[in-house]
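Narrative progress, year one. The postdoctoral researcher (J.K.) led the effort to move from monomer predictions toward full complexes, under supervision of the PI. The following entry was the first complex the group processed end to end, covering 733 residues in total.
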Amino acid sequence: MIKRTIPLTALKAGETATIVSIDAFFGKGCGKRWGFEKRLMDMGLTPGTKVTVVKSAPFHGPIEILVRGSRLVLGRGVAERVLVEVEE
Amino acid sequence: MMVEKRLRIALAGNTNVGKSVIFNYLTGLHQHIGNWPGKTVEKAEGTLHFKGYTIDVIDLPGIYSLSTYSIEEQISREYIVVEKPDVVINVVDASVLERNLYFTLQLMELGVPLVLALNQVDIAKRKGIEIDVEKLEKLLGIPVVPTVAIKGMGISKLLERVIGVAERKETPKTVIKFGKEVEDGIARLVKMLEGGHHRYPPRYVAIRLLEGDEELEKEMERLNPEVVATAKKISRELEELHGHSCSTVIMAERYEIAGRIAREVQKLVPPIKPRFEECLHNLTTHKIVGYVIMVLSLLAIFYSVFTIGGHISEFLNELFYGTEPLFYELFGIGAIGKLVWSVMEGLIAGVTIALPYIVPFYVILYFLEDSGYLSRIAFLMDNIMHKIGLHGKAVIPLILGYGCNVPACLGCRIMETERERLLAVFVTTLVPCAARTIIILGLVGEYLGIEYALALYIFNLAIIFVLGRLAFKVLPGEPTALIMEMHDYRLPHLKTVLKQTWFRLLEFIKIAFPLIILGSFTIKLIEVFGLLEPVALALSPITVTWLGLPLIAGITLIFGVLRKELMLIMLATLFGTTNFAEVPGFGPIQMIVFTIVAMFYIPCISTIAALIKEIGWKRALLITIFEIAFAIALGGIAYRILTFF
């Protein structure tokens, strides 16, 4: 069994994965973080949580996910920074 | 003499859990809607009488956490800590218990007297979730009352428990424990904090410092810098131990606790299948069908707001203008009569322009929001709206702006952060409303051809795009990130929707009417004293030299502030003809320039009032001044380019 870490946006509709971390740094070498990291965790996207992708809106739109029994929508830019682990 | 027994309670909870329904049930018509001092966040207060108590209720904004990420969170925390309500009612959605309990745990950390309203137990049951209320009560150590707010179920029980808690001054009995390492850190900090008089309980301060709460850090830096330093040290230790930042560890553990409690009290029963809500959700977010439904709904909304509004507006207009002779009879046709009538005219402008559109709009907006459809639209439109730096929800005010900017601006309150609200409001005021459409079609469309009118619309869209992007770049703060819960579809509570509409309307009238009437009166004053010519002359460097318009056109630009659809009528009166093609010095170029200026130069006075309500008078003034300057600059440039060819 191989574990791979990929961004949430790389999951296909219907796939489930475990959250590893949220990459919220501005850019390389800069210690500042975006506030959305905290907000994502407040919404339940903490490391170790199972998340299922339901679907994504057309034209690279936001994605719909199921997490902790509720339905969330994440803008694509945010979802790209949520790193998840899948088992193959 | 009996001493009046008074209580203050606050409603807190996630968004869309039925908080406002409970608030409306409790307070009925005894409520007041305003803004939090100095903030653009709405504040709803009310009173009720129950068992000899007069109870003041405040509805705190819907939030997911008590950190200070958003203004709403800051406001809620400040209110609970500083104003110290006797009891906080935490309204939770029984169908999404885990997420809701995460917030409950934070309220418990604050150590406030707490009662849990377990709302929407009926929806939870339909979804196949039954909750053991007694067990939940025992695990949390606070009273739990199951409610179905839209049916009024459980509300009086809720109040009884609230009064019980208030009388005994009960704070949560249970302390929810984190993992061992975190608890050790908390214990060390609590020890250092003991004896100091902080406005927060020591345990709360300890947890928040470990979470890296910047607001609290600043505050404690002054009081007890040692604690902050120690907290930072402990955080680093915990970070090394767990491989995640300390705040992540704490949030994750808090969610684990919430999840554990939720699993312990939930009994899963077979859900009612197939659920209608589920089907509706799949259809309305479908990549093709979803857009079809959305376009149809938006058209239907637009059409109904403006036909209903239009009919009412016309009816009221005739009714009010019918009284004009009466006024002149009473006050004479001299200066006094004119001034008195101008006050009336301002009133008419307010009643006939703003109100007929605001009422249906508010009703529809609340329906969209409460039913859950608004979040689906945001899902579908997020990508497109991102191009101008807004997220999906902004499509609603933007489209409504084509009808009337006033309700559109008021509708911008659906945006979550202050920055997004500001951006949305700004972009909305640039959208040509129905009154401006009259000028575009009636002048350019009529005399130059419909293709020119269309070109102007496209030009307008391009400007909106450019200015939207610019404002997005210039405004400080984080870029828009859509993080939104899509709750299940449900039927909105009609009474709540109507009450919300009514109280928002009152609030708008209070701000807008004095402004509209004053504006009308001032302009009439200028006219009565024969100052119209001098004012027009004084403006001639701008209107004549820069914009290349006839002197008279300048006067209509002033009147346009009041109501833009009158500009054409006025132009006709001043020119002495309705055939503008005959007017010397008012050729195609002047028509285009005039229309461009009218399209951008200022949102009408009712829109300014709406701006003041939503973003405060300073920023409203700034936007107004910017738009005047921008329109004039644009008009002048257009004049030069057009005459060049």
